[in-house]
Amino acid sequence: MAVGSEGESPDPGVAVPFPSCEAVGTYVFVSYARSDRLVVHGELARLRALGVRVWYDEGIDPGREWPQEVGGALAGASACVVMVSPAAVARKNVRDEVHFALDQGKPVVAIHLAPTELPAGLELRLGQVQAIVRWQLDEQSYVRQLGRALEPYAGAGPARADVAVARGRGAAGQAVMAAGLAEVAPEAIRTLPRDIASFTGREPEVARLVAEAAELAGPGGVVGICAIGGMAGIGKTALAVHAAHLLAGRFPDGQVFLRLHGHTPGQRPADPSDALASLLQTIGVAVQHIPGDLDGRARLWRDRLAGKRMLLLLDDAAGHEQVRPLLPGSAGCLVLVTSRRHLTALEDARLISLDILPPGDAAALLARLAARPGMDPADSAVRGITRLCGYLPLAIGMLARQLLHHPTWTPSGLAATLAAARDRLALMTAENLSVAAAFDLSYRDLDPDQQRLFRRLGLHPGPDFDAYAAAALDGTGPDEARSGLDVLYDHYLLTEPAQGRYRFHDLLAEHARAMAATDPPGDRDQAITRLLEYYLHAATIAGQHLARRNPAGGSPVAADPPPRVPDLAGAKDRVAWLDAERVNLHAAVIHAAGDHAAYAVAIPAAMHGYLRHHGPWDQALTLHRVAMETARRIGDRTAEASALTDLGDIQYVNSDYRAAIESLTEAIRLSRNLVGRRGEANAMAILGYVQHLVGDDHAARTGLASALSAFRALGDRLGEVNTLAYLGSAQRANGDYSAAIETVTLALRLARNQGMTILEARLHNFLGVAQHATGDYREAIASQTRALNLYRDMGNRLGEAITLGDLGTAQLEIADFLSASVNLTRALQQHRDLGYRRGEADRLTSLGVLKRLTGDYPAAAADLARALQLYRSIGDRLGETEVLNATGELALATGAIAQARRHHEQALAIATGSSSVSEEARALEGIGQCQRREGERKQSAASLRQALAIYHHIGSPHASRIQATLRDDGQ
Q1: Cα(941)–Cα(966) distance, integer angstroms
Q2: Distance CA 886, CA 956 (A)
Q3: Model confidence at 299: pLDDT above 60
Q4: Residue-wise DSSP of 706-762
Q5: What is the pLDDT of residues 196-250, one digit of tens each?
Q6: What is the pLDDT, as a whole number, of residue 58?
Q7: Which of 289-293, 510-514, 674-678, 884-888 has the lowest mean pLDDT?
Q8: What global pTM score does this model have?
Q9: Rounded distance, CA 904 to CA 924, Å?
Q10: Distance between CA 363 and CA 529 in Å, rounded?
Q11: Chain segment 510-554, per-residue pLDDT in tens
């Protein structure tokens, strides 16, 4: 990909507006007033006929001070030609140019176009120069004087012949003089800039452009148009020029390059009328034959191109209005247009929007341009530089030139400098070019309201935003913000990775932040506060249906809600909003922890239910720690205790039971010194269930009973139902099935009455697990199917995954192995996606049982071994007992009796100590079966009777299985 300025300079001898001052070889500077431009175009044709290269200031804004570009061009010129007219001498810029040239010792040739009275100062200085009084001379005399005056600056070869013709020498000269040079303009129909040797990558775009250009330029009746768009520095011109050279052979009537100066420093975009005049002269139309109006020039242009096969490259278009009059009128021609605008209003145009370079191509470009021996594109430093350049060709080219011209610099050193820089854009410069300056030209295209929106978006701490966030930052409404975002997108200042969501390129985001820093601090603070208020209010609405408890205190933020938030009426709408904004909310919290501490506490609390059920839990852990530390710093004990409770809850679902117990215990300690018991009860309910999971059943029963009592005293139905759910699950695990069903049924009735959909879904699943334990498999499947539908309606990923697994386990009992396999496998993947290790272990255990039942013993062994490893890593004693029993049953099925007995004995030891009655019975049954297989009939009967007694006590259907075994053995 070619890099450098947005457009490669065309041949300075071609009549295009405002040629670059990068002209090669000898050239002269031509100064004139803009109002004389049509006359001057004829004079420029004569100069080119003499072999003189020119630089002239077409397009320079006359209302500005003398631009730097003009001074640079004049300083580099060999001479200065001044077109003297009344308009010119009245123009301060022309006087400045004359004085500058004479002060620097430049020869000056003054061509007097009309009788003119010169200002005293200018008259004095023009007395020092050679003057040609054009309006007093016939054509032959004028051309002779002009050729003699400018002969030192004419080119070599054919251009010298032009000088000879102009001076009237030779037969050709007489013929030309007879016709009059004013009647003939030279043709310059192959004016493409050179293709750049460093062009790298873009193979798909080049292939598409060439293919579409070939199709468009074929027979068909319409002119072919390809519009290439992209942000500043993305390489639009380089791609267009490269493709034009590839296509040149298909257009024998010419390939013309015209820069439209949509974004040229110090210059207005080319007027379509002036651009047409230049194009017409380029194809050989004499200046006096060019109509004076836009429509007349457009008609003549279309007429001259009719029936021809010509390629026209219009570079840096400001918009479709500028381009439309320049289009040929018939098939056979191809127009390539580059622009920093989405030219969607350009009819019949094929649109190609350039994105950043792929990382590999970006690294190859850097290595190629830096030209360092042994520089490997795969090197981490090279990749780091291109990443920090945002894979933008312009930025990569500038840093490559720095490496090229600083032999002592190393890629690793430059990468480190970029990574540590507070202002990366300041490092991305080359001579008088910079990435920031290129961006600033796009910024200047915006009106003041759009510029303000651009700056305010630079304050956004996250990676993307929608119209509501933009409206909050800008203090406007969503409709107005949406219109502004569309304008920024149209100017390639934003991308739209998903419908209605926008983001900056990395370097444009940095530029927007730098621009925002110029606003008053109070304005910036108000914008950030509005954004945080919006995020808190919307997150509170979106997360309400996922809340599992009531907050212990009021919000630490006392703010009026924003005027507009998205429609979050449906559960799936709320989850979708939280999914889209999760990373932004995280960034907002980190940003708020500095000067807007209350939001850093309140936003994580509002997100808790969502993060618990959808993850990722590492993000939830980070946010709740930030909330806790911020609350502690500002001395808000209630908020600190709540943040600790949220943190402990996430640590529990993340299977970090030890950390959860520590956080929840500290939350209880803090809450006991505060008014009210809700905060204490919230933490105590979760702590009680975690204690049950690690086998501390006495503490679990005490904690859950205390939490339940506190919630009932407070009239907190949400807390009561949540605690009943924990209690019922613990009762079921301990083998008290009837109590579990009674507890869960009560909780389910309360949840329905209060409209607690998320808890209703959870309780349906808990009820199904209890029904499964009692052998009521059909009812269990029905309950879990209801739970699954509710979870899916809410878009609750964790609830869906847990219920799918429990449903698959119930399907095992009725030998529906196909359904069980589908549901268990899907649940396993969802648990892994969430990072829920306990759920992963549960599903691996169930899959191990399924594979044992279907005879795939090696696969069963692998699943059970992984499940055991997971349970032990998280300290889940109940789960460890279950998988040990399942492993013992597998070993017995394969004839490994001693191994099976060892696993069941390990399970028995854990179950007895943790009051896991059902697993205790299962272990005793397994031991009895091993003893039976080894011929220890008496011992087997004793173990089986112990198991039978427990099964009878808890109401397990497995009792009938042991009774059948004892009957078979005559026991």
Answers
A1: 7
A2: 17
A3: yes
A4: HHHHHHHHHT-HHHHHHHHHHHHHHHHHTT-HHHHHHHHHHHHHHHHHHT-HHHHHH
A5: 877 888 888 888 888 877 776 556 667 888 999 999 889 899 999 999 998 888 8
A6: 63
A7: 674-678
A8: 0.74
A9: 7
A10: 40
A11: 999 999 999 999 999 999 999 999 999 999 999 887 877 777 766
- Is 80 exceeded by the pLDDT of residue 71? no
Tell me what the mean pLDDT of segment 294-313 comes to. 90
Radius of gyration of the chain (CA): 40
Phi first, then psi, for residue 561 (nearest 5°) are: -65, 150
Say which amino acid occupies 88: A
**38 touches 48 (CB < 8 A):** no
Q: What percent of the chain has pLDDT over 70?
A: 90
Write the DSSP symbol of residue 379. S
Q: Cα 94–100–105 angle (5° rounding)? A: 130
Q: Determine the Cα–Cα distance for residues 547 and 561; give it in Å rounded to an integer.
A: 20
Put residue 353 in one of left, alpha, beta given phi > 0 → left and psi -120 to 50 → alpha: beta
DSSP designation for 409: -
- What single-letter amino acid sits at 98? V
CA distance 242 to 361: 16
Among 953, 951, 927, 957, smallest CA distance to 941 is for 927
- Strand 54-56 vs strand 311-317: parallel, antiparallel, or unpaired? unpaired
- Contact of 445 with 261, CB cutoff 8 Å: no
Q: Report whether 421 contacts 389 (CB < 8 A).
A: no
Which amino acid is it at 904?
A: H
10 Å CB burial of residue 83 (0-12, 13-18, 19+) is: buried
Query: Letter for the amino acid at 639?
Result: A
Q: How many CB atoms are closer than 10 A to CB 14?
A: 19
Q: How distant, in Å, are the alpha carbons of 212, 609, 719 from that of 580? A: 36, 16, 29
Contact predicate 214/226, CB 8 Å: no
In this prediction, residues 411-415 reach a mean pLDDT of 90
Question: In 3D, which of 335, 304, 308 has the Cα closest to residue 322?
Answer: 335
pLDDT of residue 482: 95
Task: Read off the pLDDT of each residue in 314-318 and give the average, rounded to a whole number.
Answer: 93
Measured between alpha carbons, how far is 959 from 951 in angstroms, rounded to an integer?
A: 5
Report the C-alpha gap between 617 and 609 in whole angstroms. 11
Q: Which of 98-107, 292-301, 715-724, 763-772 has the lowest mean pLDDT?
A: 98-107
- Whether the Cβ atoms of residue 857 and residue 894 lie closer than 8 Å to each other: yes
Please provide the DSSP assignment of 502-560 as one string. Answer: EE--HHHHHHHHHHHTTS-HHHHHHHHHHHHHHHHHHHHHHHGGG--S--SS--S---P
d(C-alpha 363, C-alpha 359), whole Å: 6
- Using DSSP, state whether 663 is helix, strand or coil: helix
757's tokens: 């959909």
The tokens of 825 are what? 């496998």
Q: CA nearest 101: which of 119, 76, 84?
A: 76
CB 44 within 8 A of CB 32: no
User: Phi then psi for 590, rounded to 5 degrees?
Assistant: -60, -40
What b-and-e string marks burial along 119-141, b requiring 16 or more CB atoms within 10 Å of the CB? eeebeebbeebebbbbeeeeebe
